[in-house]
């Protein structure tokens, strides 16, 4: 019965497809050999956008198509989101990197195009957009390339020099690029949200492209696109790249995380973790579970203590390690990727950046728990296995809320556990530099009111941590219980 069914299905397929095969053959013959037929081709294809481009890949056919068939464009912008501006363009889109210009070709002229979602006071025929995810921060946004978008009639757009079959994603690699936290928060995660659902069939056009950055994160970038990213500013010779779809800007939902309800295909941070595991060939999906073992034979969960080299160090690191071992952890200390050093150093490390990322991701993935003082080293949590426990030690300075947003929510979104330890004034080395009654120790509020840079200078730049072991012990005990 089964073989018979298969045979009849196959027979029907051949029968149905024969005329189509002849038709395709005839069309190919005509496109290749007959110049007179081009106009006819365009006529039959006019009503069916999408279909003709496959057949009309010959130069002349394409040119005519381009001249005579321009679809009505659709432009949907979102200038209302607090984190980033994004425009989705569909139709005949032409991008000239050398001048940061984007042309949306509209057959009915500029006024007839369907443009939605522009910012207040913007002109629906031309506007600008900065494709970077720190929209609210005027200082850093000043350094970001501005794209000028214009809706133009066919005659006013520059001709294509390169034609891309896949959609474009245009964004800036400038800003805070080089800081480990920002690389993930402003760049990698927004790219993942914006482009992952295209499963590699996407062309990145990168303003302010930094080569060392693309070397360092090669595994991630190559997992997101099958094509070499184009340096928009360095696109020499006034290249005009043509697309049928383009996204200007990256989507960003929250700190170091994704809101699946707003992401294409409901992508989540768990998807990001699986993606990173795939790209870096990480072996451990889940942290250790010690519950099944006999108490005596129980393997010790592995704890990574991130030891910063610059400020916000653990002053009494050896005692912390001893305590963690006593509680039952196997402890390793490392400064893995936590030196948020100068841009210069980051760039110098560009060549080895890729190797350092491979090493860091593999190292971090081998642990079940991590303890770190607030800072970019915590970003390593993206490589921990699921169910792992993240402990953030928050220094003095009314940063508990910020610390929670930046590193407290992401572990939960990745199916991990999170514990926060807010230190007391006695545990801060600031208590050695300032008298006990000084406002720096008593109430950081006025300093916050004064300026963030003063907060950064004092609480992030001058403070180390001496953990009170009696107070910290229950946190480690809880962490180990969570791994049972
Ligand atoms: C304009 O585009 C939006 C979505 O992009 C669509 O909902 C709307 O119907 C379009 N309006 C016209 C007049 O085509
Ligand atoms: C939009 O701006 C262009 C160029 O600045 C101008 O020519 C056009 O009249 C403006 N359109 C509207 C509706 O304001
Ligand atoms: C994503 O989630 C939302 C709400 O949770 C749901 O309404 C929507 O259908 C989901 N979309 C997809 C593509 O699964
Ligand atoms: C630390 O501070 C945050 C924010 O104020 C708070 O939610 C959390 O409960 C505090 N943690 C502890 C252990 O007190």
UniProtKB/TrEMBL annotation:
Q: Which pathway is this protein assigned to?
A: Glycan metabolism
Biological processes per GO annotation: plant-type cell wall organization
Q: Where is the composition biased (Low complexity)?
A: 338-347
- List keywords of the entry alphabetically: Glycoprotein, Glycosyltransferase, Membrane, Transferase, Transmembrane, Transmembrane helix
The listed locations are: Golgi apparatus membrane
Would you tell me the Gene Ontology cellular component terms? Golgi membrane
- Name of this chain's protein: Glycosyltransferase 61 catalytic domain-containing protein
Q: What is the organism field in this record?
A: Panicum virgatum
Tell me the lineage of the source organism.
Answer: Eukaryota, Viridiplantae, Streptophyta, Embryophyta, Tracheophyta
